[in-house]
């Protein structure tokens, strides 16, 4: 089965320009069977699709999986997938350290891996101080690596592929699309049948055969503005630090809620703060 495993929607990402129904149309036309919604620190894109589907009676065999691209405070962006029915509100509050993120995701049976791990400084795990200091200890706790990102460079993707090979982790391919021309430029092909998040998690955990690849998108901001993009990189670093600081209380409250064990009484209904 062929999936685009890194998709930003206009319903869920501030910089997204493609509606989720347009994603489905474009990807289906390109021969894809599914997509992973990975909005920035938000499930709003997936929620929008879910609500729309509940109001429609027609059957659709295109698979839409719920994921998120989480902004850690110290390890760049991480792609996260949780099992069916698990809704962790804490994942919509950016700024956790990656160690806490790993603990929470794995405690609930989810999987995670670095997005564009060898890409831009601060946004990518490979461009952080933590990577230099604790690369091995973190990588051994991750479940997959994004080895092909249509918005990255060939050098970045080759390095990501080597990283996955070094730690015997499956590689995902995703377009990282925010605009229509980028949708479906990257793919992940699974040997297993994937119909839901839990199917994907099982396939990853058992190291089922997976193939990732694609072609490159040439309309990125980095290409358009050249060396000036470094200003944006440092601006992101500042924004991420400030946002994490401003959300510290919210994260503390929601993490404390998890630690108190109240989630266990709500997990059967799928609602977890």
| CATH fold node name | TIM Barrel
The H/E string reads EHEHEEHEHEHEEHEHHHH
Number of E-type strands: 9
CATH class: Alpha Beta
Summed over residues and divided by their number, the pLDDT gives a mean of 88
- The neighbouring-strand order within the major sheet is 5-4-3-2-1-8-9
Helix content: 25-40%
**What does the main sheet amount to?**
7 strands, mixed
- Gyration radius, rounded: 18 Å
Termini gap: 32 Å
The oligomeric state is single chain
For the record, the count of structural domains works out to 1
β-strand percent reads: 15-25%
Unreliable runs, pLDDT <50, ≥5 residues? 260-273
Task: List the total number of helices.
Answer: 10
What's the shape? globular
Structural class: alpha/beta
Look at the structure and name the CATH superfamily.
Answer: Metal-dependent hydrolases
Q: What CATH architecture label applies?
A: Alpha-Beta Barrel
Q: Which descriptors would you attach to this protein?
A:
alpha/beta; 273 residues; disordered C terminus; 9 strands; TIM Barrel; two-stranded parallel sheet
How does this structure look, described?
- It is a single chain.
- This protein is α/β, with parallel strands linked by helices.
- 38% of the residues lie in helices and 17% in strands.
- It has a single domain, classed as Alpha-Beta Barrel (TIM Barrel), CATH 3.20.20.140.
- It is built from 10 helices and 9 strands.
- The protein has a 7-stranded mixed sheet with strand order 5-4-3-2-1-8-9, with helices on both faces. It has a two-stranded parallel ribbon with strand order 6-7.
- β6, α5 and β7 form a beta-alpha-beta unit.
